[in-house]
Design goal:
By secondary structure, the protein is α+β, with helices and mostly antiparallel strands. The chain has a domain at about 1-20 and about 60-118. It has 5 helices and 6 strands; from the N terminus they run αββββααββαα. The protein has a two-stranded parallel sheet. A two-stranded antiparallel ribbon has the order 2-3. A two-stranded antiparallel ribbon has the order 4-5. The chain is flat. About 10% of the residues are buried.
Length: about 120
């Protein structure tokens, strides 16, 4: 969802998203336990990319060219070319880390910071 909004021109503010396939256990499938956390993770069997520009038509593509395109600038998202989202996520236009204070005030402090930056 974040990728669709961002590719449509929305400004992303906050922290980098976890990306498709980067979540915790799902579909009842067991994951790999993360020691001391109580969580388990599961690696995806595929690699997802986001292509709002329709750059990649159906058919075969050279693997090296795809890797170069997707890994450009450390997997930076792009509004003009396909980009990786599989466990990579979307980088916000304005990085704004969440703090304990943000949780306590319902995000009002973060909202004020965003308005100031915009």
């Amino acid at each position: 969802m974040a990728s669709w909004l961002w590719a449509s021109g929305a400004t992303a503010v906050g922290e980098r998203t976890v990306g498709a396939g980067g979540g915790f256990e799902f579909n009842g499938e067991p994951g790999t336990p993360l020691p001391g956390s109580g969580y388990a993770v599961r690696l995806s069997g595929n690699f997802s990319m986001f292509d709002a520009t329709d750059t990649l038509a159906e058919g075969e593509h050279a693997e090296g060219a795809l890797i170069d395109m997707l890994a450009w600038e450390h997997f930076a998202p792009s509004r003009t070319r396909p980009f990786a989202i599989q466990s990579v996520g979307l980088r916000p236009d304005f990085e704004l880390s969440s703090t304990l204070t943000d949780l306590r005030d319902g995000g009002q402090g973060s909202f004020a910071k965003v308005i100031t930056r915009l």
